[in-house]
Amino acid sequence: GTAALIWNEIIREKVTNFIMNQSKEQRILNFVLQNAVRGDPCSVVDTIDKYCSQKEWAMNVGNEKGLILDKTVQEANPSVALELGTYCGYSAVRISRLLKAGARLLTVEFNPEFAAIAKQMIEFAGVQDKVKLLEGPSQEIIPQLKKKYEVDTLDFVFLDHWKDRYTPDTILLQECNLLRKGSVLLADNVIFPGTPDFLNYVRKSPHFQCTNYPSHLEYMQVEDAMEKAVFLG
Which keywords accompany this UniProt record (predicted)? Predict the structure, then answer.
C-alpha cells in the first residue's frame, strides 16, 4: 500500500544519499541548475516536477495541487503573501511567478539545509526580488512580521510546513492581527499525511469560510486535498 511505497522511497533515498554523499534536495537543485532555464520560473517548476515524478519523490506541492495553488493565488491577487515551509523553493517560485508588480512573498523555513537550497533555487529562477526567505521556527517569525518585516496584513497564506503547526500558527496569525477580512489561507496535505485538528478548527470557527479541494499526493495516486479558509474578520 501507500506506506510501503513511501517507506521504499525513504530507504532508496538514504542509500543514494550515502553513495552520492549529498542529499536528495541537493540532487534536485543540481538537476535544476543543469536542466532548467535560468531566470525562467516556469522552467524551474517544470524541471523540479520532472525530477520528482521520474527520479526521486519529494514533498513539493507538485503539479496537480500546484494548479489549485495557482488558481487560489490568482484569485487572491496578493500584495503580501506568506508561505510556511519553503523546503526546496518549489512553491515559492510557483507563487512568485504569479505576483503582480510590487507584491512580495515572505517564505519561512526552519531547516537551514533546505533554506540554503531554496535560496539558490529562488535566485536561479530570477524571483529573488519578490521573495524574502526567513529562516527559523514559524512560531518565532510570525510575531515579528509586523515590526521587523513591515507587514500590515497578509492577503494570502500558504501552509505547507509541519502539520502539527497548522492550527497553532493559524491562531497566532489571528492573535497577531495579521489577517484581514478576505485574507485567504490555503493548506496543503490536509488528507495525507492529514491535519484533522486544523480542519476541525477552521471549519468550526465562525471566522473562516472553508472550501475543500480533493486532489492527490504529489507525484503519487494517493488521495489528498487542500483546504482553503477565507478569513471573515
Answer: Catecholamine metabolism, Magnesium, Metal-binding, Methyltransferase, Neurotransmitter degradation, S-adenosyl-L-methionine, Transferase
Question: How far is 1 from 211, CA to CA, in rounded Å?
Answer: 29
- Domain residues for the domain of 77 are 61-231
In contact, 81 and 99? CB cutoff 8 Å: yes
- What's the CATH number where 203 sits? 3.40.50.150
Domain contains 22: no
Q: At what angle do helices 196-204 and 166-175 cross, to 10 degrees?
A: 40
In the chain, at which residue ranges do the beta strands (DSSP E only) sit?
Answer: 80-84, 104-109, 131-135, 154-159, 179-187, 208-216, 223-231
From 204, 157, 207, select the one nearest 185 (Cα to Cα): 157
In a domain, 182, yes or no: yes
Per-residue pLDDT at 16 exceeds 80: no
The amino acid that residue 229 corresponds to is A
Judge whether 61 is annotated as a binding position: yes
Torsion angle, alpha carbons of 62, 65, 71, 77, to 10: -60
Overall number of domains in the chain: 1
Encode pLDDT of 75-106 as tens digits. Answer: 999 999 999 999 999 999 999 999 999 999 99
Q: Is 155 annotated as a binding residue?
A: no
Of 25, 169, 218, 224, the catalytic one is: 218
